[in-house]
Structures are given as C-alpha cells and as structure tokens.
Amino acid sequence: MGRRILNEALRAIVNADRRGKATVELKPISTVMSSFLKIMKDRGYIKGFQVYDPHRVGRITVELQGRVNDCRALTYRQDIAAREIERYRLRMLPTHQWGYVVITTPDGVLDHEEAIKRGVGGQVLGYFH
Q1: CA–CA distance, 96 with 123 (Å, rounded to integer)
Q2: Helix H or strand E segment including 105
Q3: Is this structure's pTM higher than 0.70?
Q4: Cβ neighbours for 87, distance < 8 A, ≥ 6 positions apart
Q5: Which residues partner with 100 through β-bridges?
C-alpha cells in the first residue's frame, strides 16, 4: 500500500475537521487505511466510517466529531522495536495525555498501547492526536 495514499487521506480528514465538516469522503482506499480508521474510531477520534465497494476502487465515508488536531502518516519506512515504542511516542506526540502512534506489526495494525501490551514491534505507519 502506498504510504502517500494514506497520508493524503489523513490530511483530508484533518482539513475537513478544521473546516467544521461533518463527513469526508476518501478515495482511493486500502485495508491498512480502514485498519487505521478503526483504531481512530475505537479511541474516540471519529464517530464512524463506512466502506463502499472495497474490491474495486472504492471509497470510505468518515463521520467526524471534531477531536482530530493532527494526523499524519510517515512516508518513509521506520522500523521500531517493542522496547523503543515509548521513547518514540514521547518524541513524536506533543503531550503525555493524548495521542496515539499507529504501528503495523505481525499481529496486525495496532496503536502503541496495544503493541506495548503484546510486546511486539514493527513499522510505524503514522500518528494522530
């Protein structure tokens, strides 16, 4: 999956959220993008999302709720070990109280808290706060 596609989708979410929009439509889509959105939904940053026609070009409609301050995907490959996740989080996120680093691991796409709990590392996809 192209990381640029993920980054463009996340930037579209941030821009629509700043303009006060209720929904945003993302095209093209990927399974990694829907996993990233699922983590954002589970953590309460978006209300929900709906995937339309996932086997073709498809699109995702995301319902916003105004909590996203910043959301980015790394366009380069960043490998991270399980013991380094907390140090990386402190460096990337602006504060200790909120925000999540999203990592793709052998167990699937996880946020940093779940990856630390399971003791797995992987590649950093991006972060949101």
Answers
A1: 21
A2: strand 100-105
A3: yes
A4: none
A5: 128
